[in-house]
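@channel sequence for tomorrow's demo:
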Amino acid sequence: MTTPLYRDATASPEDRIADLLSQMTIEEKAGQLTQYFYFGAPELPEGFDIESLPPEHRMFLEQPKMVEAATGDGLVGSALFVTNPATINRLQRIAVENTRLGIPLLFGFDVIHGLRTIFPVPVGLAASWDTNLVEAVQAVAAREARASGIHWTFAPMIDIARDPRWGRIVEGAGEDPVLGSAMAAAQVRGFQSDLGSDRVLAGPKHLAGYGAARGGRDYDDAEISDAELWNVYLPPFQAAIDAGAVNVMSAYMDLNGVPASANRWLLTDVLRQEMGFEGFVVSDASAVRSLETQHFAADQTDAAARAVNAGLDMEMAMSDAAFANLPTAVADGLVSEDAVDNAVRRVLQAKFRLGLFENPFVDENATAAVLDATAHRELARTAAERSIVLLKNAGSALPLDAAALGSIAVIGQLADSKRDQLGPWVFDHDTAETVTILNGLRSRLPGVTVTYAPGAGITERVFPSEFDRADPTVAATPADWDDEAEITRAVELAASADVAIVVVGQRQNQAGEKASTATLDLPGRQLEQLQRITATGTSVVLIVVSGRPLDLRWADEHVPAIVQAWYPGTRGGDAVAAVLLGDVSPAGRLPFTWPRHAGQVPLAYAHLRTFQPEGQGSRYFEGESTPLYPFGHGLSYADFDYTDLQLDQEEIAVGDTASASCTVRNSSNRTADEVVQLYIHQRHGTSSRPVRELKGFQRITLAAGEQRTLTFPLGPEQLRYWSAVTRGTVQDATTIDVWVGGDSNAKLSTTLRIND
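structure tokens (generated this afternoon):
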């Protein structure tokens, strides 16, 4: 029997795909464009009456068998949410050995900030301003995922987020397109590299504008001007594509009145023609079916046709996929078979690039060694250390002197909550190996009495998180918790200690998808507890565990030291202890502007001057409209001096490049990192431009007394922008103000003249 050309590993992928396509039925083609969740089903007792269950419960139990049957019929191209190597191999055998063509499945999973080794949440990783670190982190995540049989991650999430009420701000890189682009590219490189046997496909998401959902409400529509879309929201996607991303995920919501998953302008004109993307596009969960829900498509056949015609290649579905209607849509002339073939071709290209036709199975015996790697946990500690932001340090309250400490009181439920420390969007974690903040301090201070009180309860969500249902490790305040008694005990414990480490924030299920908030207040009576502890006179250090900025106005006024720890991951407790005790000097910097309260949001540093710029800080009559902490802010245990900001050319022509250089000196007596940031402002031109824009940054390590001269380019890549006047990209003849410093309020400045 002659081996089909598509089975010939020596043939080109293009020839193999053409041969395979020529043999596929339209139903099999639709199957390759269909991805199903596969949760697995529990063992049911003999005689269990499944018909007596509510429809949604019955569907959950029946869905795995449905997926297996569809796979055996060659009607599934991909499965997601499977992490067990044995299960992956079993499903893969069905696809490879029990179907007519034997096309392997592509397995995807949400590997957002680690699989078994959990790193700081993405917004925390962005706070490191360290692209090399972020690339290394995602390379480890890819290694663990591929060893488990996963081929593809639905990450990085690269939505710009300027409204911290939006729950998914925790998954991204904050508010700035330059920092966001750098983090997007680093993550894609880490996940994919050369797509070898220890790498996975990256899937940057969500195209586009999901972070601008109205009111910060998850799934609500977004209205974004063309200028803001091109200048703010799309650059991270371009960076991810330039870094080689093989997949892009479309967003759920309507963008300017058109659902993103069936928006031809977005998915074809912009993504493919303008950005040059050649990979495949997958919808977010049930987003194609939702086209009917959103009153865009007439029915599911129309939804499938409109999505494919727009440029969507694969549907992510729970069950009853809309793309199962593609054969009917083709027969009815709603979509051409050529359009379907183009989508199938892009999906098959990814499978061939991964080598799945030659190596479809995972080595189950090798998984454990990869997941248990000590080096992965050490990188988790390093990543957490480099992500921590010192927000305030009055009177050098930090670092603590271990030799002078007799006792420490650690207060707060989040100080010893293993699950909350890991943050949201982890599904294959092991909390047993998590080092909490309390554990980290006790380990670091064996000769010091470290006592603990959980203190104030953290109020639960009014609307429970659906993601908690499948997570037995979720932490919560007990229903019979006596808040007053526990707060009183915590205050008494703090009063008797040399130092009180008070940990406040939000639980992990109060951040992430379906975790938007109307307020930035600390949940429950955490603020009251902090106030009562501070009133005892004991020195207080505040640790904030969160994925968004919270209202710290009172703390900023009354507490000498404040540390933003994010959700720091598997080894986060060790990292927090290392920062508090001065083993490392904190060098994390804020990837967003920190508002004073929710009434200010959205609040971004890169705003336009508009009318009466001198009154920017007094827009609200009852209080300041300025940030509590600026974008790029973060303190250090060292002091850095910025001098000698110079341009190699004071005037250049449009299209040319100048270099800005400055000298940074560590004037302290300890080695430390600094994040050097360069900002610009264009004084006049085709369009108004923001008061400041980040255009370059470098994280550097300087020994005590060491100085270094850093150089940043200022050319078309930094100076051009999309203008609503010309409906395209322009670079103006103008004057550019240039600043260099440690945050977006940098003072050291010069000017560059751009001539025609």
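heads up for whoever presents: The mean pLDDT is 96.
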